[in-house]
Amino acid sequence: MTKRIDPSWVVLASLENPQHDRCVDLFRRPDGSHGFEEFRRDPEDAGAWTPVSYFSGARFESAAAALQAARAAVPWLVAD
After folding, report:
1. C-alpha distance from residue 16 to each of 24, 30, 38, 47, 68 (Å)
2. Which of 9, 19, 40, 47 is deepest in the core (most CB within 10 A)?
3. H or E segment and range at residue 64
């Protein structure tokens, strides 16, 4: 797991940009709430995902609500 994603949280989806250097993880916490976090991957970091925002503290009632919030907050993440 990457930083800012607690090991007890279940990652439901990792959505990457076409360049594969940005990612948004959608996750579910043990209490049933959902959230998301944005990461970047740079060659100088040996390909490790590094958090770039502080979205993981926000709580949503569903994965769909977390995804909607992620799309509103992360400019490169567009609707499918």
Report:
1. 7, 25, 10, 14, 16
2. 9
3. helix 63-73
> Quick check: is 48 in a domain?
yes
> Phi, psi (5° rounding) for residue 28?
-120, 135
State both tokens at 39: 């990461």
- Tokens describing residue 23: 């990612």
Span 17-41, pLDDT tens digits: 999 999 999 999 999 999 999 999 9
Instruction: Domain count for the chain, please give it.
Output: 1
Q: Are strands 34-41 and 10-16 parallel, antiparallel or unpaired?
A: unpaired
54 lies in some domain: yes
- Domain annotation covers residue 19: yes
- What token pair was written down for 53? 């925002």
